[in-house]
Amino acid sequence: MEKTDSSKYTIAIFALTTLFFMWGFITCLNDILIPYLKGVFQLRQFEATLVQLAFFFAYFLVSLGYFIVSATLGDPILKIGYKNTIALGLFISSVACFLFFIEADSEHPVFGVFLLALFLLGAGFTFLQIAANPLVAVLGSPETASSRLNLSQAFNSLGTTLAPVIGGVLIFDYFLAGGQGASSVRIPYLVL
Questions:
Q1: 4, 62, 92, 184: which one has the fewest Cβ atoms less than 10 Å from its Cβ?
Q2: Pairwise CA distance, residues 108 & 91, whole Å
Q3: 76-to-9, 62, 128 alpha-carbon distances in Å
Q4: What is the pLDDT of residue 1?
Q5: pLDDT 10s digits, 151-187
């Protein structure tokens, strides 16, 4: 007996929906970093806003670059595929989170390295979104594409809702309570 159209993509849709949750979670975890890094590095308010600027500017630059490449050379996803684009996004995001881990463990952490990690994280997430959004739509029947995308986006919103609570407890109440300074973001970002 052959699987139905909807059931043969269940695992893939589950995995993609988990990705949507995770990048929503990490995106809002960046909000928690602002007061934390402001205190660790004695930043002025403008310098603290660079946290969000580094992350979201990566979205803009990578999206613009992707558009230019798509408009002039053709859509890269058609050449390298959804899975490879998602793998690239996951690799870049993992490197960024590992960079957080390394720099937070440093004896003299440098704010610029955290900004670079945030930029890379935003770049990785851009590749994830460029590939994951249309992939969720094409996995299954066209009639239910918007429902699948809405479900995945709902889990993205759940991640953005839970991140301030869970991240705040982890970073401020659990890790920072031990007096670990910059290293209090080490474990949360390594796990992510």
A1: 4
A2: 26
A3: 23, 13, 13
A4: 38
A5: 999 999 999 999 888 877 766 665 555 555 555 556 5
The DSSP secondary structure of 99-142, one letter per residue, reads: HHHHHHTSSS--HHHHHHHHHHHHHHHHHHHHHHHHHHHHSS-G
d(CA 153, CA 110): 34
State how far the Cα of 4 lies from the Cα of 113, in Å rounded to an integer.
Answer: 48
Q: Which DSSP state fits 66?
A: H
Structure tokens at 149: 């995308």
Find, among 192, 82, 74, the residue nearest to 136 by Cα. 82
Q: Is 176 within 8 Å of 37 (Cβ atoms)?
A: no
Within 10 angstroms of residue 90's Cβ, the number of other Cβ atoms is 16
